[in-house]
């Protein structure tokens, strides 16, 4: 998982500092996420998936499908 997060960031030519600012955390904490030194909180994992237009399953190595899942619309008539 950690390799994918780093690869996605590098594909966009972003620094760890830039990603940390987006996630509202320090560069040091973000670096720890990429190295796998600490677990990534769920809300951060979701923000990463949204930012990179992918799924949390892709980030967690549960699928090799990079494409994000479609967002379901609430059906208020139910």
From TrEMBL:
Identify the species of origin. Answer: Paenibacillus kribbensis
Q: Name one GO molecular function term.
A: DNA binding
User: SMART domains this protein is in?
Assistant: HTH_XRE
Taxonomic lineage is:
Bacteria, Bacillati, Bacillota, Bacilli, Bacillales
**Keywords assigned by UniProt, alphabetized:** DNA-binding
Tell me the PROSITE patterns matching this sequence. HTH_CROC1
User: What is the protein's given name?
Assistant: Transcriptional regulator
What range(s) does the HTH cro/C1-type domain occupy?
5-59
Q: Which domain of life is it from?
A: Bacteria
């Amino acid at each position: 998982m950690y390799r994918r997060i780093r690869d996605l960031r590098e594909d966009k030519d972003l620094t760890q500092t830039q990603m940390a600012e987006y996630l509202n955390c320090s560069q040091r904490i973000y670096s720890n996420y990429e190295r796998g030194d600490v677990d990534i909180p769920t809300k951060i994992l979701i923000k990463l998936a949204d930012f990179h237009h992918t799924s949390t399953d892709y980030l967690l190595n549960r699928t090799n499908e990079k494409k994000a899942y479609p967002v379901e619309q609430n059906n208020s008539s139910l």
